[in-house]
Amino acid sequence: MLHRFSAPWLNGSNYPLDWNGPAERPFVPIADLNEPIAVRFARIAERHPERIAVDDGTRRMTYRALQDAVRALAGVLAVETDPAALVGIYLEASVDYPVAMLACLAAGRLFVPLDRHYPAKWIADVVEQSDMAAVIGRFAGADDDAPFPAAVRRLDVRDARPGATPTPRGPDDAAVLLFTSGSTGRPKGIVNSQRNLLQRVAQYVGAAHIDETDRFLPLSSECTIAGLRERLTALLTGATLHLTDVQHAGARALLNRFRASEISVVYAVPALLRTLMQLGDAKAPPSLRIVRVGGEAVLWSDVEALRAWLPEDCRIELGYSSTEAPIMQWFVPDGFPQDGSRVPLGYPLAGNALAIVDEDGAGVSPGEVGELVVRSPYVALGRWSDGRCVSDDFPKDPNDPACRVLHTGDLVRLRADGLIDLVGRKDRQIKIRGQRVEPGELEAALRRESGVVDAAVFPRRVGKNWWLIAYVVPRAGASGLAERLKEALRSILPAPLQPQRIHLIDAIPRLASGKLDMKTLQAVDEEWQRRETCGAAAAVVEEPRGRTERAVGEIWTRMLQLESVDRNADFFDLGGDSLAALELMFGIEEALGVELPVTMIFEAPTIASLSAAIEAHAAPVFSPLVRIRQGSGGAPLFIVHGVGGNVMELFALGRQVSMEGPVYAIQAKGLDGQAEPLRSIADMAVYYLDAIRTAFPFGAYHLAGYSSGGLIALEMAQRLEAQDNPAASLTLIDTQTNARQWPLSIWFGLLWQRARQHAATAAGQTAGNNVRLAARLTGSLVKRVLWRLGAGTQSPNALSVRVPPALLAVHDATLAAVARYRPQRYDGPVLLVVPRIKDELMAPVERIWLRMTRALSVQSVDGDHRSMIRDAGCARIAALLSAQAAGTSGGPAAL
Question: What b-and-e string marks burial along 68-89, b requiring 16 or more CB atoms within 10 Å of the CB?
Answer without folding.
Answer: bbbbbbbbbbbebbeeebbbbb
